[in-house]
Amino acid sequence: MSEFSLPALVVEPIVRAALLEDLGRAGDLTTEAVVPRAHRARMSLVARQEGVVAGLDLAECAFRLIDPEIALRRAVGDGVRVAPGQAIATIEGPARGMLTAERTALNFLCRLSGIASATAALSAAISGHKAKIVCTRKTTPGLRAVEKYAVRAGGGSNHRFGLDDAVLIKDNHIAVAGGIRPALERVKARVGHLVKVEIEVDTLAQLDEVLAFGADAVLLDNMPPQMLRQAVAVVAGRMLTEASGRVSPATAPAIAATGVDLISVGWLTHSTPILDIGLDVEV
């Protein structure tokens, strides 16, 4: 049993909506015409390339919602690295249901495994440093919970889930408020004592303003490594430091070496390629 899983109450509505989108008004015309109702089959979910698996709960839910008689048996769990040609799970039961649910199950499994794999690659690139890879709110609408789950399965951590679980004062907030100090003053007068406050800066002068007033974390946006190193030294542990901007497996090691606590990466959830996984019929 994998240590990574999602509550059924989170998974099922997402999968149900995807199946309804695919089934439309008339159901699976192709499968119902081609496959006899009584036909049973055994199939395997197989990795076509190396990567880290995530999303098996959603794939299993897709098959189960179409036909409860379909049984999915996992060969690996979420968070596990697989090689090309490796079986991820086997599926047995009514063939019609398997073929109807196939694309929805694979859409989730491939998408989330792609996110987990990219996160794992970034985490490996910064191994030996204290920094953690974190995702952002740049997620697919309606899929935030599962995409952020995939980041965790890949060895990363989550930034805030929404606008309501933390304060992040961005450059536009600062511009509208009239500066860093008034923005921080208004936030601290408004939010509760358990709400963390982070603020974005892109210069060392702005960082000095933040340190004079105080915050829980500072987002060091698009700073080159030399400036990041200076910023970390100035902060001296008084708040969490988060770097963002131009992060890739090639640039991440230099960013992590500056001593930042967190490296946030938007593309993990908005434009990561899928992990190629197929469903093969066992003859």
From TrEMBL:
The keyword Glycosyltransferase applies. InterPro entries: Aldolase_TIM, NadC, NadC/ModD, Nicotinate_pribotase-like_C, Quinolinate_PRibosylTase_N_sf, Quinolinate_PRibosylTrfase_C, Quinolinate_PRibosylTrfase_N. GO terms for cellular component: cytoplasm. Residues 28-113 form the Quinolinate phosphoribosyl transferase N-terminal domain. Pathway: Cofactor biosynthesis; NAD(+) biosynthesis; nicotinate D-ribonucleotide from quinolinate: step 1/1. Its EC number is 2.4.2.19. The keyword Acetylation does not apply. It catalyses: nicotinate beta-D-ribonucleotide + CO2 + diphosphate = quinolinate + 5-phospho-alpha-D-ribose 1-diphosphate + 2 H(+). GO terms for biological process: NAD+ biosynthetic process; quinolinate catabolic process. One of its GO terms (molecular function) is nicotinate-nucleotide diphosphorylase (carboxylating) activity. It comes from the Bacteria. It holds the Pfam family QRPTase_C. Residues 115-280 form the Quinolinate phosphoribosyl transferase C-terminal domain. Keywords: Glycosyltransferase, Pyridine nucleotide biosynthesis, Transferase. Involved in the catabolism of quinolinic acid (QA). Belongs to the NadC/ModD family. Hexamer formed by 3 homodimers. This is Probable nicotinate-nucleotide pyrophosphorylase [carboxylating]. It comes from Chelatococcus reniformis.
